[in-house]
Amino acid sequence: MKKIDFMLTAFRDGFQSVFGARVFSKDYLPLVEFAAQECGITHFEAGGGALFQSPFFYANENAFEVMDAFRAAVGPKANLQTLARGINVVALKAQPRDIVKLHAVLFKKHGMSTIRNFDALNDVSNLIDSGRFITEAGLNHEMVVTMMELPPGCSGAHEVDFYEKTLRSLLDAGIPYSSICFKDASGTSRPQKVHETIKMARRLLGEKARLAFHSHDTAGTCVLAYRAAIDAGADQIDLAIAPLSGGTSQPDVITMWHALRGTDYTLDIDINKILLLAARCKEGLKDYFVPPEATCVEPLIPFFPMPGGALTANTQMLRDNGLMDRYPEVIAAMGEAVAKGGFGTSVTPVSQFYFQQAFNNVMFGPWKKIAEGYGRMVLGYFGKTPVAPDPEVVQIAAEQLKLQPTTDHLTAIEKDPKRGIAAAKALLEKEGLPTTDENVFIASACEEKGIAFLKGNGTIGVRKNAAKAEAAPAPAASAAPSSSTAPVAYDVELNSRTYHVILDGATALVNGTSYPFGVKEVAAKTAAAPAATGTGTGQPITTQLPGLVLRVEKPVGSHVKTGDAILVLESMKMETAITATHDGVVAEILVAQGKLVQAGQTLAIIR
Fold first, then answer.
1. Are 265 and 2 contacting, i.e. CB atoms less than 8 angstroms apart?
2. CATH number, span 531-606
């Protein structure tokens, strides 16, 4: 009987795929310890991917400290694996070589054993340096070919011969590796194609090579695909545990154990201990909000291949911004973004680019506003797409982004003065922050939000069920006012929407998301104008999108011309410039950096 190894993905991909990666480490590290010490699990996905940025963005936690705690929970011998995106490492923007190298060094320092390293475009040039740096740091390098199914009616990539060509190119490049993974983040690859692909790889690599296959159950075919991969010679599959399994995540360990009963394969687990782990996980995470879309099989996913991890992350952001009602339209528009984008695999960051462009096509009109990531991708700034993008879209992107297409993206990244260790150190010094290696990497990978965290201005965006929601901890550098009174709950109806609000001390929880707030008394008869409308005369500058004020580009008193960026919002992980509608002087800025704004809100006044 052949033992099939598995990596437990519940505490990384499971979090991303079910909770949108928004989770407090204190809630799950006891579960990690039980899985390792009592259940004998030795291989965990422990960070990287979205679970590097998310602790800073949503949990007010330092991801490096969480990685250290994860290692302490499992002991020194467990294989802790993280996920990296080639030259993007754990960021959405491509990074220069010095940051790519620093990533490997720091992840080794903070207890990781293996890095699964992929490129969404399957551009081999993006994996050469990153693979070498991972190996030189003393880590196992799991080299990846990314997979998906093309939307019906499309062709030119993502067939077995395409994957064979990609694998041969990786081998010919001489990239050092310890294992090979075929990764389907959208869960759309047909099981027969999975079988043929793994069989091809086994034939090409020989019997001694270690082969892993990763997928999601979003389309409902993952168990069948896993069995197809196993029959073709895969050594390892990825599994999760309830409530972090199935749907947008990986199949459950218990489900796969059952599927292999009576066959020539075994997971070699003590099922009774795994049952105990499942019970503990359900109890330990019961207060977390589980989006309904995370638990569902979506038969239409092959028509718009959205990865499970990206799907819930995006729906959580839509909820944050009061735009969940537009979700069906955005998903429907995604197929066109994939078809015209050059068939990069729908996995981070490309899946995010597809979703962002679909979002813009819905909100602003088809191709009226090119999302920066999508535009840079079709212009070649992330590497070579599997097939040429639509030439009309390329032209629109070049005009809107004021960039010319490139075939030398690696040189462009190295020459970018805003990227790299020197740029990150300069930013830290400007903010009066220590220039440690960790801080340098945080500043580079997390940008403004990373700096806000390091300055003690981190925020909380963890969603828990309102009835048992926990108050947000105070930012690290400041203490929130305490309250001796019990929390007060309200249901607030606004524009036909109901918001469940819990006021507790200096924290408001709105539909499970925590926000700090302050209240002060004002004279009862004061008739001051609302802050959102400004004072005096002038041209109001409004926003079509809700979002977070990332930075103010033009302070009060600045002379501006039509089209100049006054503020920059972050919405759906995109930076959107709010521009001047005519020439003039910025008379008022009505919002502050770090504040949430709503669609239609006035942000500035120009006179």
1. yes
2. 2.40.50.100
